[in-house]
Structures are given as C-alpha cells and as structure tokens.
Amino acid sequence: MRDSFGALRKARMIPYRACTTEETEGLATLEAIKWAIDMKLKNVTFEGNAFNIIKSLNQVSVNIGWRTKNICDPIKLSSYFECSIFTFAYRSANAVADALVSKAKTSTTDVIWSEPPSFLFDVLTNDSLSVIGAFPGA
C-alpha cells in the first residue's frame, strides 16, 4: 500500500493456490479492496497488471474465466469508497508487488507489514530511483 507520494506504507502477503494467473489476480484485487475497507480508506487507486481484470472492474465487457468472473462480480464492494479507481500497470512498473507475489508463492501464512520487510529494500530503492529519474532536475 502506497501513499499519495508513492511511498510504501504497508505491505500484505497472502498465499493463494489458484488455477490460473488471472484467478490469482482477481483474488488479490478482492483482498486489496477488503483490506482498504477494513482500514476505512475512502479514496483509493487500485493498480493491477491483469489487463482484462482491470477492464472488467471498469465496467468494460471482456472475456474472463468463469472462476475469475465469480470473484470480480462481488468486487462491486468498491461502491463503499467515495472514489475508487482501477488502473492497469505493467508488471515492470511495480516490482514491489511482483516481489510480494514471488514471496507469497513459498509462504503458508498471511503477513501484514507496517514497515517494509528486508526482502523489499533493494526493490524499493530501485523503484524510488526510477521515479526520481523520471523527473529531471529532482
């Protein structure tokens, strides 16, 4: 979870066993929405790298698997927020989420960090350097 400046404020890792990558992305999105509701957030942008899921959540008709559709239908939970936006981001643009997914594949427990875990330090450093590099003179 990042703040409006892009700084990591919390991280969560939930190990899931799903049939497809698309289903995993759908479950991750559902859990992110439930987590944001639990924290009583009102204005949220959800980023994901599953293009069809993001399109589906933005009310665009797309062909997604039936398991994923059954996950995405209840995602109408997003009406809880004053403002919720679902945006597509290439995996390469969010290495932090990718690192969490890789770690979750070998984990058996749900973990929430209020400080970045050590395995994310290098990823976060590279992430911030790429953001700084995007603004010449910064």
List the helices and strands and how they pair.
Layout: E1 11-13, H1 21-38, E2 43-48, H2 51-57, H3 66-72, E3 83-88, H4 95-104, E4 111-113, H5 121-133
Parallel strand pairs: 2-3
Antiparallel strand pairs: 1-4
Helix pairs in contact: 1-3
Order of helices and strands: EHEHHEHEH
Strand content: 5-15%
Integer average pLDDT: 77
Strand order of the largest sheet: 1-4
Structural class: alpha+beta
Helix content: 25-40%
Q: Please describe the biggest sheet, giving its number of strands, its sense, and whether it closes into a barrel.
A: 2 strands, antiparallel
Principal-axis shape: globular
Query: Ends: how far apart?
Result: 24 Å
Compute the number of strand runs. Answer: 4
- The helix count comes to 5
CATH architecture: 2-Layer Sandwich
Q: How many domains comprise the coordinates?
A: 1
- Low-confidence stretches are 132-138
The CATH homologous superfamily: Ribonuclease H-like superfamily/Ribonuclease H
For the record, the CATH class is Alpha Beta
Under CATH, the topology can be stated as: Nucleotidyltransferase, domain 5
Rg from C-alpha positions?
Answer: 15 Å
